[in-house]
Amino acid sequence: xxxxxxxxxxxxxxxxxxxxxxxxxxxxxxxxxxxxxxxxxxxxxxxxxxxxxxxxxxxxxxxxxxxxxxxxxxxxxxxxxxxxxxxxxxxxxxxxxxxxxxxxxxxxxxxxxxxxxxxxxxxxxxxxxxxxxxxxxxxxxxxxxxxxxxxxxxxxxxxxxxxxxxxxxxxxxxxxxxxxxxxxxxxxxxxxxxxxxxxxxxxxxxxxxxxxxxxxxxxxxxxxxxxxxxxxxxxxxxxxxxxxxxxxxxxxxxxxxxxxxxxxxxxxxxxxxxxxxxxxx
Length: 281
Prior knowledge:
Helix content is 35%, strand content 0%. By secondary structure, the chain is mainly α. The longest helix has 27 residues, at 98-124.
């Protein structure tokens, strides 16, 4: 069973840019940096957005200085806002929707991120009907929240909802970590812990099966050749992490943006359903 976030059970949690109005390229702002080539305020269309709402430099984002765009994933929030919350009316065709639509999108994106984690958790909880039922009940709460009218949706306390989801996810994480730990003959390195600072850590070839890396900072860490079977990567920062030759085929709560932000190669093993990023060697 795959333990990573492919959203196989919820195809609506995959971005469908053709059913959106480039909300990620308009509603959200960004500052010039290593990830973005120039400043763009929230609510203003990126200069690369075309009349059909497509990106004019999509195939060249990295060489043109926009790697941040290549690791973004709305988890299907864009098309939900465009087609369900606003009934297919675009901010260009109906300017009156502009402010409300741009305010709703960031909220919906957070809700869909929670739904993607819960979709993952549902598969991880297979074999425990009670736990799987609780996961589904929480997903239903988040889904119903996403169906609220725009004026109510923008007032949602997403942090409080995230705390409720976290309680359920913790119950799912425990048995996953236990399975991985049972496979690992040696203790984990001392620094490997939830929320740990592993910035630039040298963990090449490490046996990280069952490691609980929730929220860990793994920026520029060397995990080349590491075994991450049943490792929990929920919220882990994998920017510029070296995953060359690493085995993530059974990693839990791994997301497409995390993979896209890391570095890997042809030997890196990814879960079923994951595409190898084009910029990997």
